[in-house]
Structures are given as C-alpha cells and as structure tokens.
Amino acid sequence: MWARFTSVHPEFSESKYVSWYFCNTQKCADELAELVKANIKTATCSLKYWYDTAGDKMPQAGEFNVVTNWDGVAQCITKTLKLTEIVFRNMTEELASREGEGDRSLEYWRRVHIKFFSDELKDKGIEFNEDMPVIFEEFEKVFE
To answer: Band of the pLDDT at 21, cuts 50, 70, 90?
Structure first.
C-alpha cells in the first residue's frame, strides 16, 4: 500500500511511516480500521505510560501510519495531525466523539477505554487510574 501511495504522491517517497492495528482483539481491530476507512474515526489515544516507560515511540504530527487489520493487511494510510496530552478524567465529549466508536459519547468512550487500559496494564501489575495521562492523536485518512 505504501508503494501505491508514494506512486501517487511521490513527494512523500522519503517519508517514514509506522504500521499498526488498533485494539487487542481481532473484532475490535478490524472494526476500527473500517471506521477509519469510512472517515468516522479520526482520532485515537494511548496511555502516555507506554511512551515514558516501555520505550514506545511517541507519535509525531506529520507522521504517516499504515493502519492494518488484525491479520496485518494494510487497510488505509493516515497522517497524524495533532497530539494532545490530557489526563484521562479530563477527556471531553468533543474529543471522545472523534474516536468514532460506539455511540460516540463520552460515557461510551470512558467505559471501553477504562477496560482496555486496565487490561493493557494488567501484565505489568499496574492498576489503571483516571489520573493517568493519555496521548490523544488526531489524524486524517490520506489513502485507501
């Protein structure tokens, strides 16, 4: 997919990209990739903890992402537009709705993200709390 993208947009042929999928289950990963393709999901978030302690690379504005399904098959390419650090408990309805999931409400966002982040931290023996900062990443789909 990256080769097709850069053949149409040769100005980005020297750009770097990362490839990844959403979530920790096939159903979720595939559903969220479809939401991105439909231009419904225009944001995602992750715990800042992983960038501070686990050596994960912090996303950067202007960076390209090849979003895959669970099986690693490229579904589309996004470009990161903006990153915002926000404490989980301070998430807003407006930002939560950009994630495009469920009924797009803050209540839904909180419920699924508390479960996801709790599950994600379990292996580390860390208990999720709502004072943890998240990195909220806004993006646009640039190629499919």
So the answer is: very high
